[in-house]
Amino acid sequence: MYRETEILKQPGIGTPDVFGDMVINVGPQHPATHGVLHLILTLNGETIKKVEPHLGYIHRSIEKMCESLTFRQFIYVTSKMDYLSSHINNHGCCLCVEKGMQIEVPAKAQVIRVLMDELTRLASHQLWWGAGAMDIGALTPFFHAFREREMINDIMEESCGTRLTMNYMVPGGVMVDVHPNFQRRVKEFVAHFKNKIDEYDELLTGNVIFQNRVKGVGYLSKEDAISYGCTGPTARGSGVSCDIRKLYPYEVYNKLQFDEIIETGGDCWSRYLVRMKEMRQSLSIVEQLIDNIPEGDVQAKTKAVLKLPKGEYYSRVESARGEFGVYIVSEGGTTPYRIKFRSPGFSNLSALDHMARGGKIGDLVAMMAMLDLVIPDIDR
Amino acid sequence: MTKEELKIKLTELIPAATIDESSEWLIINIKPDELLTTADILRNKPELNFDYLFCQTCVDWKTHLTMVYHLESTKFRHQVVMKVQLDRNKPEIETVSHIWRTAEFHEREVYEMFGVNFLNHPDLRLLILPDGWEGRDPMRKDFEDPVNMIKL
Questions:
Q1: Cβ contacts (< 8 Å) between B54 and chain A: which residues?
Q2: Crossing angle for the helix pair A182-200 and A268-290, nearest 10 degrees?
Q3: C-beta atoms of B127 and A55 within 8 A
Q4: Taking CA atoms, what residue in B is nearest to A315?
Q5: Is A311 in contact with B23 (Cβ distance < 8 A)?
Q6: Phi, psi (5° rounding) for residue A51?
Q7: Which pLDDT tens digit goes with each residue over A223-254?
Q8: ipTM value of the model?
Q9: Residue spans per domain, chain B
C-alpha cells in the first residue's frame, strides 16, 4: 500500500537531507507489532527523530457496521475489537444499553460479569508478559505465560462456549449460567497461578538484562500522559490515577477490596511493574468473589426488541489496556443512530511518537511491548 | 464540584454558551468561532481544569454535523460535554490539538471519516484510510459504496 517512493514524495517525511536522515519502515508485517501496524521511522543514525504510525490495515469500520445492527446484535461485533479483553468490551456495551433502557442487572449476573472481566484481564496480562518479554529477547517467559493462559481459556470454553471472542454478556445479564465445574476450576487456577506469579517475578522481573532494557526507556510525564489521553497501565505508570473500577465503580467493584496500582517512574519499567502488580490484584478479586456467587437469575427480564429512548448515553469500563468508552446516540429506534468506541489503544499509541523521540531504535520495541498494543483495538 | 455548582460556574465564565441538562453530564453548545476561547477557559481556569479529553467525535445529523468533545478534570473529577454545530457542506473548525494532544489523532480520524477540515492542525492527513483514497467521507449517513455493497 505504501511504496517506498510514495513515502519519499510526502512532504515533511523521508526527504533525505545532507546529514543522512534515514527512513525505515517497521511493519506492517513485523513480529514485534503483534498485528498489522505500520510505523515509519525517521532516523539519524540510531536516534529516532520521528515515529509516524499508519493505521487501517485491519480497519473493519465496526462503528459504521453497528449503525445497521440492533441493540442486541451490535455487542457481538465488539468482541472483535480488543480480542484479548472481549468480555470487557461486551461489558461496556451492555452497560451503555442498560443505562438507556434502565435495566436492573440481577446480583448473580453482576458477580459473574466481574469474575469474567478479571479472568480476562489476567489472561490478557499473561499474554502481554510472555509476548512482551519475547520482543525484548527473553524467549522462555512466553511458554510459561501460555501454560497458565491455557487454563483460563479452558474455563472460558466451558462456560461461554468459546475461547477468545466470548459474546457471553447480553443486555440484562449474562447469556447462561456458568458451568457446574466453574468454581472448582477457577479455584484450581487461582491456587496454581499464585505460585506461578512469584516464578514470573523470579524469571523476568529480577533479571538484570531485562531491567536494563526497560529502565529509563520511553519516558512519559504525568502531564503528557493526561494530555495524550493515555489510560490504563500506561498512564498509571506515569502516576496518573485513572482506574475506572475505582473512580466510577460499576457492578460490584465498590464492594471489593483491591488497590489501584500507581507507579511514578513514567518509563517502561513502571508500566511493567503496574501490570505485574495488577495481576495480583485481579487474583485477589477473583478469590473474593468465587465463593460468594449469589443465587438467583442470571438475566433480567427484557423485551425481545430493545428500543433505546431518544438521547445519548456514555459508559466507561476499565479494559486490560485502559479506559474503554461507548458513546451511543439514539433516535428512539431499534438501531443506534451513531456509535463511537473510545478505544484505549488508539490514544496510547498517539503518545508513542512523543515517547520515542530522541531514543534509540533498539528501544522502540521495548516501548511498543510495554504499551501493550492490540491492533484491532486501535483500528476498530 | 456537583452538577449544579458546575452549571453556575459555566454560565458565569462562558455566557455565550447554552447549557443542556438532559443528559448524564452537562452539555454546552457553542458556535464554531467561540471554540478556541471556550476550550481555553475550560482547560486553563484553575477551578474548571478540564485537562483530559477522553472522547472526541462527530455525529452526522443529515442537515448538519456536530462535533462532540467529552472532557474531564483529573483533579476535580467533573465532566462536561462540549458540542459545536457545523455546516454540512463546508465543515470547518479550529483544531484543539495544541490544548489536548490526544486530539491530533482523533481529529485526523474525524477528518477522513466525516470530511471536517481542522484549521491549523499540525499534520492533517489520512490516518486509517489508505493513501490515495479519493472517495467521499465514509462515516456520513449518505455514503454509498456500490462495489463493496455498503449502504445504510
A1: 229, 231, 316, 323, 325, 342
A2: 150
A3: yes
A4: B24
A5: yes
A6: -120, 125
A7: 899 999 899 999 999 999 888 998 899 888 98
A8: 0.88
A9: 3-119
